[in-house]
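Notebook p. 47: complex prediction with 3-iodo-tyrosine.
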Amino acid sequence: MKESSLMESFPFFAKHGHMVLGCFAVALLINLLLRSCRGGEQFVRPFRTEQNHNPIKELNPDEDFSEYGEATDGVEDDSPSLPENLEHVKFEYSRPTENEMRERSRKFYEITNARRTLRFFSPDPVPRDVIVNIIKAAGTSPSGAHTEPWTFVVVSNPDLKSDIRRIVEHEEELNYAKRMGKRWTTDLRPLGTNWHKEYLTQAPYLIFVFKQDYGILPNGKRKMHYYKEMSVAIACGILITAIQYAGLVTLTSTPLNCGPALRTLLKRPMGSLRHQAYEALN
Ligand SMILES: N[C@@H](Cc1ccc(O)c(I)c1)C(=O)O
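Predicted complex, structure tokens below:
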């Protein structure tokens, strides 16, 4: 399992600083990890074909999920992962006029063009249902074989945020000092980034996005996930855009080398060999 590269599409310019004062804030951390299991507050989007199903599943962190087990079997099975008689959702469409399209695309561009990657946030609270809607929007993303290989974990607890900040700042200090190297740190200099991550305790919400390398079928077998990184990345794009559309602000970040410690803190399932080694050492 490898950590994704950090996504940085818009630099933060000091002159935009005043724009966020008084705004609601959301810090977004993207971390690509193993399949979902437990920890924090967790939202999982079910198949859209499941009618009358509450799309948000809130898991009790103390619940025992061991019954789901580890997938021990391969996928040499002739039954598909989705139901054979999968019910398809009816598509309703009415084509807008060209002028309507022009206007809608222009307005949408204006909204996306106003997004900035920020490293300071207002601690003002944001209604929880807004975050739920945003995650539901991200969960409408297309995915390989409709496997929806993602888990969103939302952290708002101040103690947990402090623990996360401690882990990230510790690793990032090493990253900047040793791991990233001269070229990388030189390229980042104009952006003014460093290992101090006050925003991790300032922002009202941290959203972790976990990649599920595979799922577990009801019969305990492994459910194959296809194009998982691409699928998760598309979902992240929708997530960020939904946050922007709601009038909130974000930082998209993948703190290098923090995966194992964050997985452990957030009680995520064992991931890479590196994570297992980390667990063994701690
Ligand atoms: N993870 C570090 C370094 C960093 C920062 C921005 C960026 O676009 C890239 I690529 C890397 C940090 O978050 O400071």
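Notes: The chain has nine helices and seven strands. Residues 17 and 65 are 44 Å apart (CA to CA).
Next step: compare against the earlier run before touching the bench.
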